[in-house]
Amino acid sequence: MPKRNEITDKIENRDRIHVVMFFLSIVFFLVGVLIMIQIVRIQTGYQVDDRVVDLFRTTVSKHTDNPVRGRILATDGRPMAISAPLYDIHMDCTVRKQEFIDKDNSEGEAKWREKAAELSRCLSREFRDRSADDYLKAILNGREKGNRYLKIRNNVELSVLNRLKTYPLFNENTNKGGMIVERHDERIYPYDSLARRVIGYVKENNRIGLEHSFDHELHGREGFEWRRVTDKKTWIRDLDSASVSVKDGNDIRTTLNVDFQEIADKALRAQIQADEEVRAGICIIMEAESGAIRAMVNLSRGDTPQTVLWERDNLVLREVGEQGSVMKTVTLVSLVEDGYVKTLEQTLPTNNGFVPGGYNQDVHILDYQRETGRRDITVMHGFEISSNYVFTWLAENYYGKKPQEMFDHIYSYRLGEAFDFDIQGMGTPVVNRPGTPGWSRTTLGTTAYGYGLSVTPLHIATFYNGIANKGRMMKPYLVESVEKDGKVLKSFKPSVLNSSICSPATADTVTRALRAVVNEGTATRLKNAKLPVAGKTGTARVVLSPEERGGSKDAYSDAYGRKKYQGTFVGFFPADKPKYTILVTVYSYPSHKNFYGGTKPAMAVREIVDKIYAIDPEWRPQMSPVAAVPEMKETKK
Amino acid sequence: MKKVRTAIKNIFKALRNGEFLLRIRADKYYLHIMYLFLLMWLSILLSLRVDKTLATAGRNKAAIEDLRIRHSQKEAELVKLQSASEIERRLDRMGSNVAMPKEPAKIIKRK
């Protein structure tokens, strides 16, 4: 049994616990009441001190990194499109204004204004667009009216920005100096308009040319990282948060030769610049063996003749039209390949220029008959003078009963379809073959000399390149590799469209005919070019739109009898061992003048060939020295 | 209650006399305590060093970006100056007779 003292101790201990528990419950109650009061106070308009807000404000922020867009390079590595940022400069004119008012610090305000005056002088010297007084007036006016975003200058380069940062006020931080810098990435095209339609452009979400086709390579990948502030108020990467590293875009190396492009651009401008009746001019230079495009010029004037020549549209790819007499070569290759024309000296009757079956008379044959007194003509001479009669007669005579045979050839030359190309938007040819709505009794003959079949200039250049390449038709291409920091990631090799459009013997025969066109026929302006050229001229009337016709019933002329022409020269050089295929076409507005392929286009080709001859290492003559040539040694640094 | 008061009183007294650690026999854990301090010191030091390195890396990154931009802009300027039409224009402005070659350069082949 417990003793009395032990019982008393137990009771005392229990009382002590009760007292402690009582006090604790009082404390908890009071704390609870205080919390409730605080909650009510916060809910009913408690203003948190800014210093407290600063202490609790998160010091981590998400930073997005935009990738640098890849460059577009010429074949020798010269950049044709580069990305670099430009900066827009604004000013918060109200900085420290309130601070000076609050502290009644008129001296501080006067000092700020002094610095603003000095800044104005510096800005005036830098940009030379406004006087120092004007700048100062704008800044002080902005300060009075509370302008926090006064425009100073847009599109400033980095070097200028760095100079601006040394000027009074701008050399202080944004909260004190008021300088606001906004960066935006811009695409720089060092060669300005040169090959712009091929390179393309980037405008917000609108892209064309290679900029569009290879956007997936050029663009790169955005990255982001979280950043936090250190004790020294520096923003650093927050290693505890996830991040995605930015991946800059890859470079694209094109097949374009800047020198050739400049030569072609200049030669074409020289021919068409002064003639306001010329709507546009195009040029393609293609390497025969590979199909690599070395130059592609697309100059056009726009809607009115007064507008300047500019790379407005890719006519080389998109202008689907009847190409005229350059198509006679297509017919000739088919005839020779099928064995219908065994020799170019083969003759046919002249028939006063009439081909039975509803064809118009070819009056040029009457001139030929009168001048020569002959009643027959060789295929070679018909080709030289580009006789429509000769090719209509040949087509009707040999393919009249089986026209599909000729159209099979046209398809095998890839003239009946759009093929895959490095720039999107290639025009689809229109072929009026038997069985189609466009087929008529005379379609076979007109197709033989270049009407009834509509293709793009690139189709024609590719076909002629096939002849230059002894029947091997190469696929034209513009991009040879995708690179990153000079390292090749992907390489695009030449590919074949048709390994044999004709036999080498046929190609040789046709080359002889093309050479004769230059020496004796319609392209004699190229006879004395520095390299022997083989090629064909073509002059085609262009079908007018209903608006252009203005009531005229003739599809090819307007109410004033004016016609639209396109004159073409297409060929290759040197004729004996072709290295380049070239095509130049000139398009006119409705005009009373003729635009023959043998005039402006041939003259442009002449200039281009002569200049390429002078700069291409291929034709550098080697000399044997009569004395010993000293060895060239590298100079030691 | 009395015991608690006595205990608190003793703690304050020990602290005042500098005997607190001796009283709780902290000398038994001296190495552990020093090790803990070392670890804390190292942790703070490394954290500061990491911050400093990241700040330097950030500055270097910005400097590299500046140089890249300058390089791009300079490259564009130089490429523009290098174009044949620009060279011709400048030569023409200077009144020079130098023009594009009309014949290819001749190569002297060593015997």
Short description, anyone?
The complex is a heterodimer of chains A (637) and B (111). By secondary structure, chain A is α+β, with helices and mostly antiparallel strands.
Mind explaining what this structure looks like?
With 637 residues, chain A is an alpha+beta fold. Chain A contains 22 helices and 25 strands. In chain A, the strands form seven sheets. In chain A, strands 2, 3, 4, 5, 10, 19 and 20 form a seven-stranded mixed sheet that branches. Chain A has a five-stranded antiparallel sheet with strand order 12-11-24-23-22, sandwiched between helices. A three-stranded antiparallel sheet of chain A has the order 1-8-9, with no helix packed on it. In chain A, a hairpin with a 5-residue loop joins strand 11 and strand 12. In chain A, helix 4 packs across helix 5, helix 11 packs antiparallel against helix 22 and helix 13 runs parallel beside helix 16. The longest helix of chain A has 40 residues. The termini of chain A are far apart. By secondary structure, chain B is mainly α. Chain B has one domain. Chain B is built from four helices and one strand. The model of chain B has no long low-confidence stretch (mean pLDDT 89). The chains are: A alpha+beta (637), B mainly alpha (111). Chains A and B meet through helix 1, strand 3, strand 9, helix 11 and helix 22 of A and helix 3 and strand 1 of B.
Give the structural class of chain B: mainly alpha
Largest interface (CB within 8 Å) is between: A-B, 48 and 34 residues
In which range does the helix fraction of chain A lie? 25-40%
Strand content of chain A: 15-25%
Biggest sheet statistics of chain B: none
User: Span from first to last CA of chain A?
Assistant: 112 Å
SSE ordering of chain B:
HHHHE
Poorly predicted tracts of residues of chain A = none
